[in-house]
Give the backbone structure.
Amino acid sequence: MVKSCCATDCTNRYSKKSELSFYRLPKNKERRIKWITAMRRNNWNPGSETWICGFHFVSGKKSDDPLHPDYVPSIFSFTSTADQNLAVNNLEKYLRSQEVCKKRHVRARAVEVQDTEVQTEETHNDISSLHEQIKSLNTECQSLREKVHKLESELNTTALVLITMIVKRCFTKTDAVINT
């Protein structure tokens, strides 16, 4: 079956060599009604294989964005020059607003990246500070280990001296008992 445009007074037909796009009327009921209403065809009930060419869209292509002027076809043989100019102006306005939104998004993204860089820098500073604290704590731990080792040595020495003294006393008392 040959694709031909369903718009009144349009004789465009699909050809592989042509760059003109063709679009099937939408299945979505609300959007389909908008398209059919825009075409102003009386007592017309299009089938599932009904096509419209890109010529009837301001940009030459349909859009799925409900805010885009080409969400519904608007250029027809009955469209006045003033309405065609209005449609072109609406498309330009839409494209400018999309550009502004993109710029805002890029700026917002740049701020996010900048915040991340600041946070990263702060994180690096925090990490450096933590490394310094760890070094200090390790030095303090080593010093305390050395003190504990020294005290243990002194304790062992003192214990040996006490044991030696106790043993000597025991032997002295034993010798005194034996000599008596």
